[in-house]
Design goal:
It is built from one helix and 14 strands. With 188 residues, it is mainly beta. The strands form three sheets. Strands 7-6-5-8-9 form a five-stranded antiparallel beta sheet. A five-stranded antiparallel beta sheet has the order 12-11-10-13-14, with no helix packed on it. It has a four-stranded antiparallel beta sheet with strand order 1-2-3-4, with no helix packed on it. Strand 1 and strand 2 form a beta hairpin.
Amino acid sequence: MKANEIKKGNVVEYNNGVYQIRDIERSSPQGRGGNVRFRFIMYSVPGGNKLDASFDADDNLPEVELLRRQSTYSYMDGDAFVFLDDEDYTPYMLDSEVIGDDAGYITEGLTGIFVQVIDEQPVAIQLPQHVTLEVVETPPELKGGTATKRPKPAKLNTGLEIMVPEYIVNGERILVNTTTGEFGGRAD
């Protein structure tokens, strides 16, 4: 797989190791004739050791086959998140270090999660596009203000903080985009 085709979450082979791509920075060349470079922040699988490496667009990184198992978040076991396979109830344990910032989107009984498995080892998760979270703390709407709808900060039940429209109040359930961390509307 060429470097310019790789997306976040892909798992590749590099330097005799297996790595999951967590972040991609694209640097455009200065001046003509320069090559676009891709900087990947990768974590070793398993183990989670961080590696920062740069590649040319045409560099080839073999993709590693991984299984994606649809699962439901079940419970915390110490510092580990436990997900249960929707089909055969296999428990997959992933450390909070592996989950990282995604922890802010995970609530009890969350479904639609894909656990990524390599050689029967869970290595990462892929969250659904949107999750429903509850607003636990946000300032009240300003009365008699201008007609502009200014976003305001809101703290959600997982500890995540995002910006929401002014009309959202405490206790409301909202949709949050797990890719961008942005408000996605009121939940039903």
